[in-house]
Write a structure and sequence with these properties.
46% helix, 11 helices, 302 residues, alpha/beta, elongated, single chain
Length: 302
Amino acid sequence: MTSETDNRHRLATAPIVVGVDGTTTCENAIRWAADTAAHRGRRLHLVHGLGLTSMRSVLGSYDVMEPAVTESLRTRGERMLAAAVHTAREVAPEVTIATELTEEDPAAHLITLSESAHMVVLGARAGAGTLSHLGSTLLKVAAHGHGAVVVVHDTDPLPALGPVVVGVDGSGVGVSALAAAFEEAAERDAELRAVHAWSDLEEGAFAGADYLLIPIEDGETAERAVLAERLAGFQEKYPDVTVVREVHPNGPRRHLAAHSAVARLVVVGSRGRGGFHGLLLGSTSLWIMQHAGCPVMIVHPE
């Protein structure tokens, strides 16, 4: 019983963690996280990783240079964190803020912190392009982190009117995403739009697929029943959350992207199995993380 009580206390007091890299890309993420922390009465934990562990392995025999190099990096990191605190205070003057300057690799440290965080928030550049524009730290944390990782683009506005949108599938990953989406909708007093596409094919591939592989006859009726079953338990737990259901034969990316233009948050699941730079996030999750017009929450199955 004590352990259960301790766990509930830990969850209730878990901070919102933000990765700080000193660029304008993360400023919106800091603002979004500070606003969320203020509304939920949570602490804000701003973190900057120096990556000295890997740097020491690169310096090799040049140990004599290390003190000067590390001191310069520490000074720069401290300035980044001070600027981040200033940015957060502009949005949420009363929120409790802690800063952390660590020698660890930023991605590895954020992944460790995600085990006990309410959520981890990271910034990203907006717009389409190669995966590199998202940054290796973001991709690693989004793929390997625990719980919820929120990606806030540098053009995303702070939370305003608009629904929380969740992509629903039939997997355990989808159940975790649904749980997080209902909680977010309840916290934000927002409508929840549950979007279920029973095929992850996009228009061209869907049109060219063997019709025997696509549930056409009574397909929508059957999939609406699947969606209703997925939502039932959560609607009982969150009776005040208004839910709008959508079922589509295909194109989850297209429908989620369209909703993201007016949503305050899109929630998707992560397969969480690892892989190079997190490419096994799932194609839809990875794509919407790049292209959404609002913050995106990646939810891991644990």
